[in-house]
Design goal:
Elements: E1 18-24, E2 33-40, H1 42-49, H2 55-74, E3 79-86, E4 93-100, E5 106-113, H3 116-120, H4 128-131, E6 138-144, E7 152-157, H5 163-174, E8 179-187, E9 194-203, H6 217-231, H7 235-239, H8 245-253, E10 258-260, E11 264-268, H9 274-282, H10 286-292, E12 298-301, E13 308-311, H11 313-317
Parallel strand pairs: 5-11
Antiparallel strand pairs: 1-2, 1-10, 1-11, 2-9, 3-4, 3-6, 4-5, 6-7, 8-9, 12-13
The structure holds zinc ion.
Length: about 325
């Protein structure tokens, strides 16, 4: 990993916190092999540090935030992408959520539920499968683009040694799109800041959506090469603050040629607000409000950003 510590605030020339769409040019018709690269610096550090998760749990949430950024950037219209795992393991639920509004900025947030008793039985370095990949577990993806497109939900089993495996299975089996994907999240060894990154390439059906995918010999070779090169990416390369996404893409695909498109900027932002919570509390019965009142206050915690809002019973009962 890099020797230079990263800084907390994004400097003006920072290339962190973005999704970079790209296309591999190759010898054949362009446009068959497309991908997205994601890099998170301060965004993932802020989200993970708002909580106090054990490192192996934080890594999974960090990778899921990268996946949410990738999928969110594929949305045609503004909307919300939610990725959620559910299982009977020591980490029963992980949620990552991406929202794009009219300003074109991608907002990320996320959290994990932990069963501390179950987790304590797993030792210092629990595997992904141990933490969330239990037999009955699944990962759900929801894409909601408002009234512009029908709400979409896809589900895949939590099978595999990593979140990358689960995501690859999802695209290959549920979406019928040949996909190679790598996700990573870890602490910078020098600065202690969390970083996350990922890269995905897909073999898309040629031409208009819905047409038959053409995998002739040449495109098959191009696809094989693109996916094999991607598997050679090292975790350090996905996270390195000194290696921006364009340099990484050039390193991987300069032989075939790689064309990059405008990147999407990502920030950490939560949708909770005092007003929204107050509106929700006003819908509660008097009994429920009495139950929730401790020492004359009603404290409500937002699980996503770990902010606690405090209300008096008068706030809730008033108009
Ligand atoms: Zn919040």
């Amino acid at each position: 990993m890099n020797k230079t510590p990263i800084v907390v605030a994004d400097p003006p020339d920072s290339r962190d916190n973005e999704v970079r769409p790209f296309q591999i040019e190759g010898q054949t018709d362009a446009g068959d092999v497309r991908g997205r690269a994601v890099r998170l610096g301060t965004v993932v550090d802020q989200i993970l540090k708002a909580h106090d998760y054990p490192d192996p749990v934080a890594r999974i949430l960090g990778e899921m935030l990268v996946l949410a950024g990738m999928l969110g950037s594929i949305m045609k219209f503004d909307g919300i992408v939610t990725i959620q795992t559910k299982s009977g393991g020591p980490v029963p639920m992980v949620v990552a959520d991406f929202e794009r509004r009219a300003d074109g900025i991608g907002r990320l947030r996320g959290y994990a539920d932990i069963d501390t008793v179950k987790l304590s039985a797993f030792g210092k370095n629990p595997s992904f499968e141990g933490l969330i990949g239990s037999k009955s577990g699944y990962m759900a993806l929801t894409i909601d683009q408002g009234d512009k497109m029908e709400r979409y939900q896809g589900i895949v089993e939590l099978k595999g040694a990593s979140l990358s495996d689960v995501a690859r299975n999802y695209f290959t089996n549920s979406e019928q799109t040949p996909t190679e994907i790598r996700l990573a999240c870890d602490k910078d060894t020098v600065s202690g800041f969390w970083r996350a990154g990922g890269i995905m390439v897909q073999h898309l059906a040629r031409g208009e959506e819905g047409r038959e995918r053409i995998l002739d010999r040449e495109t098959q070779e191009q696809w094989d090469r693109a996916s094999i090169l991607m598997r050679s990416v090292k975790t350090e390369e996905l996270l390195d603050p000194q290696l921006d996404l364009d340099q990484l893409l050039y390193r991987l695909y300069h032989d075939d040629g790689v064309r990059v498109f405008a990147s999407e900027h990502l920030v950490h932002a939560c949708r909770c607000s005092r007003n929204n919570l107050l509106t929700a509390l006003k819908g509660f019965s008097d009994d429920d409000i009495n139950h929730a009142t401790v020492d004359g206050r009603i404290d409500v915690n937002c699980q996503f950003c770990n902010t606690t809002y405090s209300f008096s019973p008068e706030d809730v009962r008033g108009d």
